[in-house]
Every structure is written in structure tokens, then in C-alpha cells.
Automatic annotation (TrEMBL):
The lineage of its organism: Eukaryota, Metazoa, Echinodermata, Eleutherozoa, Asterozoa. It comes from Patiria miniata. It holds the Pfam family Elong_Iki1. Its main location: cytoplasm. It is found in: Cytoplasm; Nucleus. InterPro entries: Elp5, P-loop_NTPase. This is Elongator complex protein 5. Residues 283-316 are annotated as: Disordered. One of its GO terms (molecular function) is tRNA binding.
Length: 316
């Protein structure tokens, strides 16, 4: 049976919004390209928003059949309008000043006759830095909840997010609206990628039923963007040695515990208050709960109890 990560990549396990969290220690772009390669075989078009690399770099290595389905929205070449590249000259150029959502760019570059599309964003970090995390979350929510969308079906959205660039509140906000989050961690190995993982992936997947699945697997992506999944060996078959707790009563000159014979002798001791109860005709059964407790009071000689004046013996 294929692993959950493999099922998500192949499309056997549905997920509307996938967020890949990488860091400077391990890049998530190979996994992003692997997902893009798989998406091209399931949809008619893949709209790729590029803010971290140029379209030429991103498309390098893909087959011509994959590149023919990819439409790049270039947010890398001139996002701040410093180079003077105007929109009419190259209508795929994205400027941060005009970026309010992703759906409007998809609508303006839609090909007629397309039935299904997918969206890939590489990556969300520059948009969050130059715009805001609120705009990003709103734009992603608009894509996933396309009730007023008259275009083709958006089958899947895949985003790359650099977790070490933002604070916890920003990454948590983006991951909150995602159905699948892939947290990548580095894995040091010099073995071939078919034998050892190049990264560890902590996967959090939320199904439509509301069930949340958490798994940890290793992964590798080769030059043809094929995915290899490995079971996590860092937590498997780990023997935990339990240290023997020292006995604080081991080296004492006296004994703090009772032997069984001493315990029985202790239970058979008749306490002083039981004699008073036996004197009044109430025998005590040790260990019995048949009778409720009673209090017996014997007045002393100095007691001067007067019902008319209970405080008569007080010296005020």
C-alpha cells in the first residue's frame, strides 16, 4: 500500500490546498516540482505564480508535454517596477502594487475550453513580506472557496512557504486554511537518493470528514521529479533505557516499612477511645463499616454546665 504522502502526490488522496514548509537547511522546491509534474497529468492547465525564481529556471528539467500545460505568472522579473517592464509589453508580469489576489490573474490568462486547472505558488514568502499575510490568506481562501467562480474547476493549490523567514503567527495563519501541510526537515545522508531520504517530512493532513492524520516519513526526489518515500527510521525500533531509581530508604539505620506481622499487630491494637465506646455498650468492630461513627464525651470535674446560663463559668 502506498504511503499517504505518495497518495497525495499522485492525487489518490484529495487535498484542495497543500502548503510545503521548508527552510534554509532543506529546500522544498524539488518536492514542489514533483507535485507540479504530477498535476500536469491530471489537469488541463497549471497556473504557476513565481516570486522566488524566474520562469526559465522553474521550467528547466520538465518535459515538453509538461511545459505546454504550464502558464507562468512572473512575479520575479520586476515585482517592484524598478526595471520599467510594463504590463502591456508582457502581460504575465506581476507587480506587487497591482497584486490584490491570484484569481484575477488566472481569469485574465485563461484558455478557452479548459475544464480543470491547478495553481502552484513559488513562493508565498515574498508576497507576505511585500504585501501582508492577511492578503495571502484571503487570496488563498478565495481560490479554495470559489462559489462565485465561473471558470474551470480548481482541483488543487500547492504553495511553498519558507518557515524560517516569518514568525509563527504568519505561518500558522497560512497553515490554518490548508488541508495538507508538509513540514520538511533536513536528513544528513551520503547514500543514493533511491536508498536514503534527502529530507524528513512531517505530514499533517485533514480529510473532508474532519479526521486529521499526522505522519512522519522520509522522501527523496530525483532529477526526473520522481518521488521516493521511506519510513521514518529516527523513531522506529528505538529502545529506551530506563534508569534505575535509587531507593532513599536503602542505607538508613532504621526501618521505615512494616513487615506483614508488624502490620497485623498494628491493626489489632485497641485504641483508647474504643474502651469508652465499649463501656457504653457499643462494641467496636475493627475494619467494619456497618455502624456510623459516634462521639462520646465525659464531663470533667471542673465542668460546670448550666443549661440556663452556659457562659456562667467564664470569667468576664
Amino acid at each position: 500500500m502506498a504511503s499517504l504522502l505518495q497518495q497525495i502526490v499522485n492525487g489518490n488522496e484529495s487535498s484542495s490546498l497543500i502548503v510545503i514548509q521548508d527552510s534554509v537547511d532543506v529546500s522544498g522546491r524539488p518536492l514542489l516540482r514533483c507535485l507540479t509534474n504530477q498535476l500536469s497529468s491530471r489537469v488541463d492547465q497549471v497556473h504557476v505564480f513565481l516570486f522566488d525564481c524566474s520562469p526559465t529556471v522553474f521550467l528547466s528539467g520538465f518535459d515538453p508535454a509538461v511545459r505546454s500545460k504550464v502558464i507562468c505568472h512572473d512575479g520575479w522579473s520586476d515585482p517592484l517596477e524598478w526595471n520599467g517592464i510594463s504590463l502591456p509589453d508582457d502581460h504575465n508580469i506581476i507587480h506587487y502594487s497591482a497584486l490584490n489576489d491570484f484569481r484575477s490573474h488566472i481569469e485574465s490568462h485563461m484558455t478557452k475550453g479548459v475544464q480543470s486547472i491547478a495553481v502552484v505558488i513559488d513562493s508565498l514568502s515574498p508576497v507576505i513580506i511585500n504585501k501582508s499575510v492577511t492578503l495571502v490568506c484571503k487570496a488563498l481562501h478565495q481560490l479554495t472557496q470559489s462559489t462565485d467562480w465561473e471558470g474551470p474547476d480548481i482541483s488543487e493549490i500547492i504553495c511553498l512557504l519558507h518557515q524560517d523567514v516569518h514568525d509563527v503567527s504568519a505561518t500558522s495563519a497560512v497553515c490554518h486554511i490548508a488541508t495538507t501541510v508538509l513540514y520538511l526537515e533536513p536528513y544528513r545522508s551520503i547514500a543514493p537518493i533511491q536508498e536514503e531520504p534527502m529530507a524528513l517530512c512531517e505530514l499533517v493532513h485533514r480529510r473532508k470528514s474532519g479526521k486529521v492524520i499526522r505522519m512522519r516519513e522520509g522522501l527523496s526526489v530525483d532529477h526526473d521529479y520522481r518521488l521516493f518515500v521511506f519510513p521514518d527510521k529516527t523513531t522506529a525500533n528505538v529502545e529506551v533505557e530506563v534508569e534505575a531509581q535509587p531507593d532513599p530508604t536503602a542505607n538508613l539505620t532504621f526501618n521505615l516499612t512494616l513487615k506483614e506481622s508488624e502490620r497485623r499487630a498494628k491493626d489489632n491494637v485497641v485504641l483508647p477511645y474504643t474502651k469508652v465506646q465499649q463501656r457504653h455498650g457499643h462494641p467496636i468492630k475493627i475494619g467494619s463499616s456497618e455502624h456510623s461513627g459516634k462521639i462520646f464525651y465525659e464531663p470533667d470535674e471542673a465542668d460546670d454546665y448550666d443549661e440556663e446560663d452556659p457562659d456562667d463559668d467564664l470569667d468576664i
